[in-house]
Amino acid sequence: MTQAELADRLRVSQDKVASIEQGRRPVSLALAESLDELFDTRGSLKVAVAKIPAREKFPLFVADLVELEQQARAIQTYETQVVPGLLQTPEYMRAVFDSSYPPIEDETLEDWLAGRLERQAIWEREHPPWCNFIIEEVAFHRPVGDPDVMRAQVRRVVELGELQCMGIQIMPTLRRPHAGLSGPMVLVETVDHDSVAYLEDQCISALVEDADEVHSLQLKYGMLRSQALSPDESARLLDGLLGA
Questions:
Q1: Do the strands 204-208 and 195-201 form a parallel or antiparallel pair, or are they unpaired?
Q2: Has residue 8 got a pLDDT over 60?
Q3: Is the pLDDT of residue 98 over 90?
Q4: Residue 4 buriedness (CB in 10 A; 0-12 / 13-18 / 19+)
C-alpha cells in the first residue's frame, strides 16, 4: 500500500503515517491494534508496541525528560507559563494542547494525552520521587480551558501538595528580585545520585550534564525557593482561589 492508501484504510492522516515511518512519531496501542487487524498479524504489533521503552513513546524533544523522570530519586521543577505536566488534570492537558499553534492533529493530541497521563504514574510508585515544584502565580490566573477546568486543576495541585513526597511553592507575580527570569528548568537526581538538568524552549530542548552548569542551576533553584511562598503559604493562596 502507498501511504495514502494505508492512511485511508486506517482513517488517519497521511502525515501521521509518514511521521511514523520516519521515526518522528510513536505508534499508539490503538493504532497497533488496527494495523494488526488490517494486516492479519495476530496481535504481534500490539505486543511489540507495549514493550517499547517509555522514552520512545513521546515526542523526541521531551523523551530525555521522560526517561529521567522514570528513574528519578528527586525532581525539582520551576515553571513559568502553565501548571507542570506532572500535576495536570486530563482536562487541563487537553486545553493546553488545544492552545497549540499550528494546531495539533487529533490523533497526535490523543497520543500526547495518553503519554502525559502515563508519566504521572510515578506518583503511584511504592517509593515515588521527592519533588518540589515552583510555579509562577500567573499560571493559576491565566485561563486555560473554562472556569471549571481551572478550578479542577487548582484543586488537583492542592491535593498533590498534601503528599508526603511533594512540595509546591507559588512564586508571587510581584516578587522582586527574581532569580528565574531566564526561564523554566527541571533538575533531576537519579538513583545513582547523578544530577542533571533539563531545559526546554518551544520545541527545542537540552539535557545539561556538565557538573559546573548543573551546579549553577541548582544554586539558582535554591534562590528561587527562598523567594517563592512557602508550601503552607502557597496552599493558602490556592485555597483562596477556590474560595475556601
A1: antiparallel
A2: yes
A3: yes
A4: exposed
